[in-house]
Amino acid sequence: MIQIKSFVFNPFSENTYLLYDETNEAVIIDPGCYDKAEYKQLYDFIETNSLKPVRIINTHAHIDHVLGVAAVKAKYNIPFSLHKIDEQLLKAVKTYASNYGFSGFDEPEIDSYFDEGDVVSFGNSSLRLLFVPGHAPGHVAFVNDEQQFVIGGDVLFRQSIGRTDLPGGDFDTLIDSIRTKLFTLGDGYTVYAGHMQPTTIGFEKKNNPFLK
After folding, report:
1. Which PANTHER family match (predicted)?
2. Where are the domains of the chain?
């Protein structure tokens, strides 16, 4: 059974997720840790629980979701995966990171690229990948059907949606991704978003003002 640990990192209050199961193998999703205290928080949890990170997987490549990728990748000597379309977003981060007060951004090397339908495996567990662009052109989400949850990044929030005014964003594309991909999941699926608290598909169908 997959355990989900969330951390809130960096000034954007970004949710980083650590998923692990009974084998103690783990995947790290969207490591946004930036300062020493945040890295320590992540590393201490991994050490205390005797976890073995095997992979970094990202929903997308906006700055708040990639700040810690290079350091975490080096710490555990594990591969990093991203959708090919978001590679240019990742490469752009170093050009504007200092504008947000993040000096010396270390751009990570991408080891493999995602495509829709891919399966990410760790331990006895797996996540299937959905391509859900709109907030970012190469945005993906990770779904586990057995436990009915999705790690959704910045697509769908509790009574809100991801921004579409950033480079590569598109409102109509985002709404289509939510309706045709996320809303086809069962109402009981929990959505662990890139910011704020979790929600459910059923709650958002009934209460999200952007999707009435």
Report:
1. HYDROXYACYLGLUTATHIONE HYDROLASE GLOC
2. 3-211
Range 6-35 average pLDDT: 98
- What φ, ψ does residue 77 adopt, rounded to 5°? 55, 55
Secondary-structure class of domain 3-211 per CATH: alpha beta
CA 99-105-54 angle, to 5 degrees, is: 140
Burial 173-183 (b: 16+ CB within 10 A, else e): bbeebbeebbb
Neighbours of 34 (CB within 10 A): 21
Q: Read off the DSSP letter of residue 122.
A: E
CA distances from 20 to 51, 63, 76, 177, 186 (A): 8, 25, 15, 27, 23
Residue with tokens 């629980």: 49
Question: What is the per-residue pLDDT for 212?
Answer: 82
- Provide the token pair at 82: 């991203």
- Sort 68 into a burial class: Cβ within 10 Å, 0-12 / 13-18 / 19+: buried
